[in-house]
Each structure stands twice: as structure tokens, then as C-alpha cells.
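#lab-general

N.A. 3:47 PM
ok so I finally got the sequence cleaned up, no stray characters, all 417 residues accounted for. can someone with queue access submit it? mine expired

B.Y. 3:52 PM
send it over

N.A. 3:53 PM
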Amino acid sequence: MACPPWQHDLSRAFKRHRAGRSGWYLQVHGDRLRLVSKEFPPRPGEQAAAGPKQRALTLSTPPGPSTAATALAEACGVFDAVMAASWSWPHPDATPAADDPGHLEPRHLRRLTRQLREQLVGEQMQSGTWERTWQPYLDRMATTAEERNWADGESFLAAFLRGWPPNSRSRQMAYDRARRLWNKAGWSWPEALAPLRGNGKATAAPQGVRSFSNAEIEQLRTAIHQSRLTSADGVAWDCMIVFGIRPKELQAMELQQREGLLVAVVSRSKQTSRGSSGARIIPAVPPAGWPADCHRLLDRWRSHGLPPALLGVRSPGQALTQQLRRLQLPEELTSYGLRHAFALRLGLDLGLHVREAAELMGHSPAVHLATYGRRLDGPGLLAKVEGLLSSRGNQAAQAGTSDSRGAALPRREMNLA
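B.Y. 4:20 PM
back already:
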């Protein structure tokens, strides 16, 4: 089969550069371009052969007429380095530089993913967190890299990020995971991609987070008492209600009475890619109308404890949400809705400052505002607008009265005349 014109011209130009030195040639192998010669040194770990051995180097530049000039420059550079005895095979685990045309190959991205996992898992997060919230995004990045030979990192990353809806939380996570991988490789991140990250509000409900209302909390407790759930299950749900803890924190929680106040001592710290949330002490903040002892919660906890099945499960939140489905509560409610209700009680009922409420909940003020800002600011914002509209209406009425009095005066003067 005759080679295409661009390949013929490339081989002739490479031959001219070699000044007639034989034993070197370029060949297309699949979708890659290879440089073949018997003058390549042995690979790392390769046993010395009895005589010259032909070896092939896969070039970073893909084959084609538009890349022929780049391929020629790369092949000539390798030839010159081999002749000067300064060339060596790249280490198989070495991360290519960002200006290497082959740095976006799937094998490099998968190797970087493995290295990043070894760095984060165990130090900053658990393996389950990695598998749920990191691995799927980085696997999809490698899949995107397999689609074609990408010319540059910016176009590749833009195509990767557009695989998720604009302004969605999933695109934000894809952006952050990709940037962390780029930092791991030491590659420069294209700042022009910043608008693609978005604000994560596309899928947010206009009214904010979906929390349990007080009526739904009572409906939940009634359904638990009428179901086959145990007394220990009731204790677990009541702890979620009055302390607003994460479902996972039930596995490392102790109830105490301190100076007449019921508190939960949470010893489990949440590990994330940004660090640890730390242990904390949370006072009971029950819904309005509850007794001070939260329906004898401390005594019930001492008598029944928490359900062993819940303490040993990998994802308590998922198990609790499944219980909600069996109790036939509204489909949109999850176990986290009780934590949301707790946060709103802190802000709307007690009037705590954002920083104070965030400390009790075990996250940052920025996260607290991002999650609950709509619900916390909504009532005050509506009241402020209502007050301003009322004030504007009063001013307009006063101005109208003044104008009417001013207009009547000349008429009286005319009558007197």
C-alpha cells in the first residue's frame, strides 16, 4: 500500500536531516507515528542483546498532514540527541511536561489519578468518599481523552467540563477534581476556563433547601412509633432532630447533661479534601413545643442506645432515608432534611449569627451561607421590601396632599378678588 504524500515528504525531509545516515525511518503504526532504528540505546532494565537490536519510539506528535512539520522537528531532535549520546528512554512512570503533545494521553491521566488517590485516601478522605465523589469524574476525564488526539489542554478540559449541565453542582465538582489533578501533574491550569465552573445554582430549588417542617417532624415520630422500628431507632431519629448532626456522626456520638443542658458530644471529625471539621459539642435545640428534656431523650439513649445495624453500616444516611421511604413520608424528604431544619431553627428561631451557627454544625460560615442563605435571608428580605414599599406609598400620599393644597390656594385668591 502506497504511503500518502505527506508521509513521503516527511520521510524525505528526515532523510535530508540525517545527511544520508541509514538505519532510521518513520512509520505509521495505528494512530501513532513511530521512529525506528537499531541505534537506540537499550531500554531501562532491558538486557543487552548480542548484536544491534531494532527499537521503536512512539512520537508524541500524531500522524497527519497538519502535524508533519511538528513530527519532523521531534524526529530530528531525537536523532540528534542519540547521535550525541545524550538521549535516554523516558521513564514509564514519569509525568510528561505540559508542552509535550502526548501529555493528555489516557494512560498518563489514569496514572496521575492513581497517584492522586494514594495521596488523598487515608490522609484527607476515606476510600468510600474517593470512590463516590472523585473516581467517577476522573474516569470520565480519561474517557474524554480517548475520543481523539487533543491539541491542547484548554480545549480538552473545555470539552470535558461541558459534559455536565452549566452551573450545576456536578460541573463544579468536575472542575475542582480536574484542577486538583492538573496541580498534581504540575501543569498550568487555563484560567480562561473559570467561567465554565459556574455557581452551582442551576439545580437549586428557588425556595432553598428542603427541610422538615415541625408538622412533618411530628408526622415522622408518629410513623416511627406505629411501625416495626425499635426504640433504639426512635432514639436515633430524635438525635437527628434535636442536634442536627450528620447521619454518619451517630456512630461517634455521646449524650450528656451539662449544667442542666442536654448536649451531644460528637467525637468523629469529618475528613474532606479541605481538611478536618473537628469534634464538637452541640446543645439540644428541639422544635417549638417540645419539652425541655426532649421527650426523655437522655434516659432513652441510656436504656436503648442506638441501633447496632445503623452503627455498623457504611452509609447511615442512605439507611435512614430508606426508612423514610418505608414510612411513606414525602418523597423529597431525606435524612439530611432534619439537619437542614436544625440549621434553620438556629437562625430563624434563635437568631444566631452565621458564624455561631456554622460552628455548631461543624462547617464554615461560607458553606452555611451557601446552603441556607436563601431560607435565612428570605423572611427578613421580604419584610424589608414590604416596609420600603409602605414607606414609599406614605411619602407619595403626603406629596399628593401637599400638591392639592398648593393648587387650591390660587383658586381661593381668585374668588376673593
